[in-house]
Design a protein that fits this description.
single chain, about 475 residues, alpha/beta, six-stranded antiparallel barrel, five-stranded parallel β-sheet, 21 strands, about 40% helix
């Protein structure tokens, strides 16, 4: 989950602190138990802060433990300058939490401290509630997960295979801005490196992977031309090549241009991208390596943030079509729909049993397999980091993936590209608003309602949130 620091701030008068210390400690212990029960690693300050020297030393000790976020806890009236000193001794995001026990003025202490931090421009989040309140623990946890995700971006490296695809401006970001705002470096890698390494990749491993896919998939539909065992193995060797480059160059997440060079002359990257984004391959469980189709930089950044928050693979898709009669969207593209989304199961066999590997369509003369399935139903959080006049914004909404009977699914697929993966998405945004304002052709999704974490992450990154709903 997340590592959370907890520091309780007290009154600076010796006789008042002596009277309050047991009360403060009992409240802090309850808060720590509540956060620990929610799965977090909690680092409590070694002392209650009742002097200026303790404000600094306790905060430094907690910060040294590598916490993702630090709670300053107010069970009583607390001298605000202790908060100021403690805040200066840590660089982690701050949450000010007040006890709502009316027998002591904890809310007063939090407001005085928060106002002081406002005056110096130190960002913080304020929360309040009983220390054993599950809702409070949930809100703290969401903010802590967001802080951990944001921290994980800093010092990371994005591997960009190829350049701008097909003139797609929204797929290219300013590398200086990425480093300044997100702490992410960009490693430029020519796609020829992928081709060279794929040609030298282990043919035995590729054959083993092909047999595994043939055994577990709903179907591998060879046609002797656009999809052959040899072409499928070329895609698998591309996966092996990318894995080697990831390990060698210590890449944290990636994007592959693909079009038009690879799709015209080598093979599509659908199989490569799907299994990079999956939490498994033919050798068993493995870490997800977020990989964006068409080397979409802001798409990959969105996906990496979503993955670090949720721990799940992240969906990447085009906004292909709006079925007005059903009020659903066809989120569909050739590229990475991780096979995990077919059933969202920890068992790859359960997912692959719903996945077909079809010959690629006319867009891609080099051929290879497309990875086709219909995303499993369920509540989803959808959105993307987009830019307006050079400034980042997070466009965010809830939605629902739906699934229908075979006849309906087939009919809907045939209205676009049936060989590609699809997610039937009902969005909590009016179609006219969405089409008028969404800032890209690619959209991303993770299971569940993760808006609280994404809002918090956007705040920590200095990004405005543009959130849509039907309300």
């Amino acid at each position: 989950m997340a590592r959370i620091g907890v520091i309780s701030i007290s009154d600076g008068r010796d006789h008042v602190h002596a009277r309050n210390a047991r009360f403060i400690q009992s409240k802090q212990d309850e808060l720590v138990r509540s956060l620990t029960a929610a799965g977090h690693d909690v680092v409590a300050g070694p002392d209650l802060v009742a002097t200026n020297t303790l404000a600094t030393s306790v905060a430094r000790e907690v910060a040294a433990a590598g916490v993702d976020v630090t709670i300053f806890y107010y069970a009583v009236w607390s001298f605000p300058h202790f908060t100021m000193l403690a805040a200066d001794a840590t660089r982690s995001p701050l949450i000010l939490v007040a006890s709502t026990d009316p027998t002591e003025p904890g809310l007063v202490g939090m407001l005085a401290a928060g106002g002081a931090l406002d005056q110096i421009g130190r960002a913080h989040t304020r929360m309040w509630g009983a220390p054993d309140d599950a809702d409070l623990a949930g809100r703290v946890g969401a903010h802590a997960r967001a802080a951990a995700a944001v921290a994980s971006l800093r010092g990371s490296t994005f591997g960009r295979f190829g350049g701008r695809p097909m003139g797609m401006n929204t797929a290219v970001a300013n590398t200086d801005q990425w480093m300044r705002q997100f702490g992410v470096d960009v490693e430029e890698i020519d796609q020829y490196e992928l081709v060279l390494r794929a040609e030298k990749a282990d043919v035995g491993e590729a054959a083993k992977a092909r047999r595994w896919i043939e055994e577990h998939a709903a179907g591998v539909h060879y046609d002797g031309r656009k999809l052959t065992p040899e072409l499928l193995e070329r895609q698998i060797r591309s996966y092996l090549a990318i894995r080697d480059i990831i390990d060698e160059r210590k890449l944290d997440f990636s994007g592959i241009k693909g079009q038009p060079e690879l799709t015209e002359h080598f093979a599509t990257m659908d199989v490569t991208e799907a299994f990079l984004n999956d939490p498994y391959d033919w050798n068993g469980p493995k870490p997800v390596h977020v990989t964006a189709t068409e080397a979409d930089m802001d798409g990959a950044l969105t996906m990496q943030l979503m993955h670090k928050i949720s721990g799940d693979p992240v969906l990447f898709a085009d906004v292909r079509h709006y079925h007005a009669d059903r009020d659903i969207w066809d989120l569909c593209n050739s590229g990475q729909h991780a096979t995990w989304y077919a059933a969202r199961s920890d068992d790859p066999a359960e997912n692959l049993a719903k996945v077909h590997f079809y010959p690629e369509v006319f867009f891609f003369p080099a051929g290879g397999a497309s990875v086709q399935h219909i995303a499993a139903p369920g509540r989803m959080t959808l959105g993307r980091l987009t830019r307006q006049a050079g400034e980042y914004r997070l466009q965010l909404m809830l939605g629902e993936f739906e699934n229908y009977d075979d006849e309906t699914n087939e009919s809907l697929m045939r209205q676009s590209t049936p060989e590609w993966p699809h997610a039937w998405a009902r969005l909590d945004a009016p179609a006219e608003t969405f089409l008028s304002q969404f800032g890209a052709n690619h959209i991303h999704a993770i299971p569940g309602d993760r808006r609280a974490e994404l809002r918090a992450a956007a705040g920590l990154l200095g990004v405005d949130v543009h959130e849509w709903s039907r309300d």
